[in-house]
Design brief:
There is one protein chain. By secondary structure, this protein is an alpha/beta fold. Helix content is 39%, strand content 14%. The protein has a 9-stranded mixed β-sheet with strand order 1-2-3-5-4-6-7-8-9, with helices on both faces. Helix 1 (6-26) packs antiparallel against helix 2 (34-64). The longest helix has 31 residues, at 34-64.
Length: 353
């Protein structure tokens, strides 16, 4: 059974209830002297605790998207595995109503051969598969790892936080698109590896899905990307790698911008995908916003300062925000929304009318 499947969760609950019932039934019937009965009863209590903990941990994992598969949980290296993922093509994707006015779908990208979830939020008056709505600019929202698209809704307070910014005039409306950044539960820092084309999934397949089902503005000045933690790393690198797709990126508390050996062990592959390497001498006509706090040990200001130095002499426009306080958490990231969306609004085209 899949780690995140409902069947696995229900099975654990049933096992937990059966163990509890069996403990109650045999508690007074265990034969032998006391030195035999009490260890047996202790073992039954421990078994009850273990099954209850397993069921609770599975519920927490499914709610927060901590581990997407058994390989992810066990730390197995699957970067070289052929995903062979199934799903419908973009044109056949069906959107179902979710919470907070969002739409959710699953599809398989023809370019990347990867499958995954995508959550979309459209401003009021805009609908899926409409041919008459006003074309909108688009911002991809990229979650951290562990996590999932749902993290933006459950912990990032989207889309309510964004709607308040629009109402206050702090940003113009965007179509918000929340795709999974680690299809199959394998983190590649949004990079194309020999067997897993995650950058292609995000820069080709997901935009194609959105264009086929929503009216969007065209060109890189109408498409941006924003992310936190691992998603922040991705938001810093994707515009540099795909300037014809994304015109701007906002990276909130990004993971190490020089890349992580634990994610991409191959030094050459890691360097080809590291934002600090990509920005050096880049001629990409893109703008990047990088933000962190002085208290964030996982995303220290020094790495942003190093990125700014590397960007000198390039055509990339870099803006930064260093907050005095804040940890590597949703409280810090949501506090950065006003600056990040104001930046994206200044760099990306507004809807017509």
């Amino acid at each position: 059974m899949r780690l995140t499947s409902t069947a696995f969760f229900v099975t654990l609950i049933v096992v937990c209830l059966l163990v509890m019932a069996a403990t109650l039934l045999v508690w007074q019937r265990i034969p032998g002297p006391g030195w035999v009965r009490w260890p047996a009863r202790t073992a039954l209590l421990v078994l009850c605790q273990l099954t209850a903990i397993a069921a609770t941990a599975t519920w927490i994992n499914s709610s927060f998207g901590l581990y997407a598969s058994w390989n992810d949980l066990l730390g197995r290296d699957t970067l070289t595995e052929n995903p062979a993922m199934a799903g419908v093509p973009p044109r056949m994707a069906k959107f179902s109503r979710g919470t907070s006015g969002t739409l959710t779908t699953q599809f398989r990208g023809p370019a990347s051969k990867l499958s995954g979830q995508v959550i979309v939020w459209a401003p009021p008056g805009h609908h899926v598969n409409s041919r008459t709505d006003t074309p909108l600019p688009v911002v991809l929202l990229l979650h951290g790892v562990p996590g999932g698209p749902q993290s933006w809704l459950e912990n990032g307070h989207m889309p309510a936080a964004f709607e308040r910014l629009v109402e206050d005039g702090a940003t113009h409306p965007f179509l918000l698109v929340m795709p999974v950044v680690d299809p199959g539960g394998v983190d590649t820092d949004c990079s194309d590896t020999p067997r897993r084309k995650v950058a292609t999934w995000l820069a080709k397949d997901v935009p194609d899905l959105v264009r086929q089902h929503f009216r969007t503005l065209s060109g890189p000045k109408a498409w941006g990307v924003m992310g936190y933690s691992t998603g922040g790393y991705c938001a810093a690198k994707l515009p540099l790698q795909f300037p014809s797709v994304f015109g701007a990126g906002a990276a909130l508390d990004p993971d190490p911008l020089a890349g992580e050996a634990g994610v991409l062990p191959d030094p050459a592959l890691r360097a080809r995908n590291a934002p600090t390497t990509l920005v050096r001498g880049s001629r990409a006509n893109v703008a990047l916003f990088l933000a962190t706090s002085r208290q964030d040990r996982e995303s220290p200001p020094a790495q942003i300062e190093a990125f700014v130095q590397a960007a000198k002499g390039s055509s990339v426009r870099v803006s930064t925000l260093i907050r005095p306080t804040g940890g590597h958490n949703y409280g810090t990231w949501t506090g950065m929304y006003p600056d990040a969306f104001a930046f994206l609004s200044s760099e990306l085209t507004a809807p017509a009318g």
